[in-house]
């Protein structure tokens, strides 16, 4: 399987596309289904034109493709499904490593209930 | 001490993480059972979580939101399937719409938490399961597990996912 190296300009486009909460939300709605642009426009408190613009940014970044079907313009993502499971689990693991690290910090600062039966007012 | 093992099953679409803590089981349980503690570790840096509803009972719900640096809010929910303090908690985790209702268009993750006393501390096993590969595909794009792709590493994953070999 050939993997292209993205150019700097392409990387910039992807980062720019993902830097916006609405576009991230549009992206995730395009994942399983193939919503039409007008369907997407119903979801957000903004004009059809504004949503259309967001979709165009995602499209330029190569994150979604638009497909005309009848009167509708459908938006969908595509890509290599094989590597995805791996990346999803990697990402899940990374996120939970962060959570576990924060748990460790919290445990370190929390008083241990049993030993703290008599509150030790100060000291240390 | 924290994560001691991570096992991924790409066919079974699951991940098992094992962590060890130098803390009593009851204290580790409180990380999950006390909403004020939960909200201090759930959200990634820069995306603090607020737990609005927290009912750790079978059928009970947990509702949370994470607030990003730009004030954007990302909501999620758990549906508790079973609970046995301080040893086990099973729930489904999913995304919510802005009004807090579960977002039916996005996939969910089944999570099992198991705590056990070990060497004077606590061992925590976390098991995550997806129903289908389609769910995983979808979650990947969501930036998924913390709501937002924020680290370069995560960005790299997205970039790799979106690289296509067709154009020249």
Short description:
The complex is a heterodimer of chains A (124) and B (168). Chain A is mainly alpha-helical.
Q: Which chains have the largest interface?
A: A-B, 54 and 67 residues
Output the number of helix runs of chain B.
4
Give the oligomeric state. Answer: heterodimer
| Extended strand count of chain B | 8
Number of helical segments with 4 or more residues of chain A: 5
N-to-C series of helices and strands of chain A: HHHHEEH
How would you describe the overall organization of this protein?
The complex is a heterodimer of chains A (124) and B (168). With 124 residues, chain A is mainly alpha-helical. Chain A has five helices and two strands; from the N terminus they run H-H-H-H-E-E-H. Chain A has helices at residues 8-18, 21-32, 37-43, 48-60, 81-109; strands at residues 65-69, 72-76. A two-stranded antiparallel ribbon of chain A has the order 1-2. In chain A, a hairpin with a 2-residue loop joins strand 1 and strand 2 (72-76). In chain A, helix 2 (21-32) packs across helix 4 and helix 3 crosses helix 4 (48-60). Chain A is elongated and about 60 Å long. In chain B, strand 1 (3-9) and strand 2 form a beta hairpin. Mean pLDDT of chain B is 80; it is low at 144-168. Chain B contains four helices and eight strands, in the order E-E-H-H-E-E-E-E-E-E-H-H. Chain B has an eight-stranded antiparallel beta sheet. In chain B, helix 1 packs across helix 2 (35-41). Chain B has 168 residues and is α+β, with helices and mostly antiparallel strands. In chain B, 22% of the residues lie in helices and 40% in strands. Classes of the chains: A mainly alpha (124), B alpha+beta (168). The interface between A and B is large, with 54 and 67 residues.
């Amino acid at each position: 399987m050939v993997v292209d190296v993205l150019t700097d300009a392409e990387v910039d486009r992807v980062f720019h596309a993902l830097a916006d909460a609405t576009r991230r939300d549009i992206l995730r709605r395009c994942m399983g289904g193939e919503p039409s642009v007008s369907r997407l426009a119903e979801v957000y408190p903004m004009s059809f034109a504004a949503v259309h613009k967001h979709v165009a940014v995602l499209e330029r970044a190569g994150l979604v493709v638009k497909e005309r079907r009848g009167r509708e313009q459908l938006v969908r993502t595509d890509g290599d499904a094989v590597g995805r499971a791996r990346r999803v689990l990697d990402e899940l693991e990374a996120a939970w490593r962060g959570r576990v690290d924060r748990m460790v910090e919290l445990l370190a600062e929390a008083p241990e209930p049993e030993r703290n039966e008599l509150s030790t007012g100060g000291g240390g | 001490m924290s994560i001691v093992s991570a096992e991924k099953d790409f066919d079974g679409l699951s991940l098992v993480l094992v962590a060890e803590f130098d803390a009593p089981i009851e204290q580790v349980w409180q990380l999950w059972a006390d909403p004020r503690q939960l909200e201090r570790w759930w959200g990634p840096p820069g995306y603090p979580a607020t737990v609005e509803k927290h009912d750790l009972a079978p059928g009970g719900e947990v509702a949370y939101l994470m607030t990003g640096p730009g004030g954007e809010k990302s909501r999620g929910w758990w549906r508790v399937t079973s609970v046995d303090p301080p040893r086990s908690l099973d729930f489904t985790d999913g995304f919510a719409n802005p009004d807090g209702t579960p977002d039916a268009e996005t996939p969910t993750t089944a999570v099992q938490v198991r705590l056990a006393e070990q060497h004077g501390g606590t061992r925590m096993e976390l098991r995550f399961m997806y129903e289908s590969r389609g769910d995983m595909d979808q979650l990947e794009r969501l930036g998924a597990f913390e709501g937002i792709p924020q680290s370069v590493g995560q960005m790299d994953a997205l970039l790799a996912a979106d690289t296509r070999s067709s154009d020249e």
